[in-house]
Amino acid sequence: MAEYSEELVYKAIDEIKFGILSPQEIRKYSVAEIQTADTYDEDGAPIASGLMDGRLGTLEPRQRCKTCGNTAIRCPGHFGHIELAVPVIHVEFTKLIYDLLSHTCRNCGRILLSSERIAKLKVRMNRLKEMFGDVPSSFFKKVLDVAKAKECPHCGAVQYKISFEKPTRFREEIPGSGAQVLTPSMVRERLERIPDEDLEILGFDPKMARPEWMVLQVLPVPPVYVRPSITLESGIRSEDDLTHKLVDIIRINQRLKENMEAGAPTLIIQDLSELLQYHVTTYFNNEASGIPPARHRSGRALKTLAQRLKGKEGRFRSNLSGKRVDFSARTVISPDPNLDINEVGVPLEIAMRLSVPEKVTEWNIEEMRKLVINGPEKYPGALYVIRPDGKRIRLEFVADRTKIAEALQPGFIVERHLRDGDIAIFNRQPSLHRMSIMAHYVRVLPYKTFRLHLCVCPPYNADFDGDEMNLHIPQSEEAQTEARLLMQVQDQILSPRFGGPIIGAIRDYITAAFLLTRKSTLLKKDEVCRLLLAAKYDGPLPE
């Protein structure tokens, strides 16, 4: 069992440096070597040294982790490791490996530049560090451009052209012999020869990332929380895609070890090594070009590490950048010229689901009692009553709401339905400037779309061809006051971009006004009366 220090260290974090774990570090962080592809025994208990080993963490609520002794809620999860029978190239580092193989000596590992040139580059690199605090990436690109030679300036060895085939195959083109495939073991040996001082010129920090670490000898196995298994209604356990992939890796790795120990023919060893490389590649990235994706029996492609991180549904955009908030609504927008520019038409259905907390006082207690009696089903009503001791009463499940209404006292809070005049924050994505999110006053209307005055379209860059917008209801009095003071539409008319008005009539609105008012347009008296009525004109009509 690993030992944990109880000593607390208080230090400010100055910077974070990303690097590659060495095989020694992977073994050090690991709590178990995973040797068997089986997960659970007949009784449903995790198998020791299996992919669900109790030392990696526990998924059962009442069980304790065998490494830290915590339950599932408190245990952070612990890594295991698989000892690979042969080295395997990490698919995400192939471009870096290609650059290193192409610009360093195949014999001594030195960079293909003379000692004088290297000394000059080091001086220049140190100057850049002093000036900017870091060396720009353009410097290292220039180093790669000039680090080319047919013979090594240090040992005199002849250099051959290196070619790369996706996803992970490297070839060396030897004149007269054809192209020789560089196995991951050969690649690793060459990378090991590159000295630390040359790596610094190529942009590597040897303490954080030695190039041979990009060819894996040990594969980290993530904790069970990263790949939880699900128990279906039928009682059958369904394993995560990552666990499926790790099972494939362990099985092939075991077969390869057995064949190597038994002295199997080179062709069989080669085929199994390539199969292990395929499984490790698809474990990291199941969309790597040049190979077919790994699939379930159903034909569905497995979702492995890269697929969980990148894209719209990945960890970064979906889980870290993407937010889900309460007291918000989203629907399609429609035009309504009868609204004021600082109003938003809210569908009744939404107004009955969103709520605003209102404090009960002597002045509004009767009104609040009526809302409580109406409850969530009748508009205007209320969803919750919060007592001064903090207890929330959900009115949906209260049979006799009259008793609660009678028990209302000043100091209670009623979470009532949205109603005309409430302040709401309206937003259209993408939020590119300040005016993409502004405060409007609610006007509860029938039908199922948000209604918007046409003059407010330019700041939102909105049109009515199916655009959707978001509505947020500020809950605290401070938030509501802030929205009223800083975010109202009439306070955002002048754009900070060009100093002119951004809120106003555009496109068909102006065209209609022009057609209506040009000299050749003639209207009947009843049409004029209807237009004046729509404009709320209340004055004498000219003869």
Task: Please explain how this structure is put together.
The protein is an alpha+beta fold and 543 residues long. Among the domains are: 89-218, no CATH class; 328-491, Beta Barrel (Barwin-like endoglucanases), CATH 2.40.40. Helices cover 31% and strands 17% of the residues. It has helices at residues 23-29, 94-103, 115-132, 137-146, 184-192, 196-201, 241-261, 266-284, 305-309, 315-321, 348-351, 365-374, 401-407, 457-460, 477-486, 508-517, 525-534; strands at 80-89, 161-165, 169-174, 178-182, 215-221, 230-231, 237-238, 328-335, 343-347, 355-359, 382-386, 392-394, 413-417, 423-427, 437-445, 450-452, 468-472. The strands form 5 sheets. It has a 6-stranded mixed beta barrel. Strands 10-13-11-12 form a 4-stranded antiparallel sheet, covered by helices on one side. Strands 2-3-4 form a 3-stranded antiparallel sheet. A hairpin with a 5-residue loop joins strand 11 and strand 12. The termini are far apart.
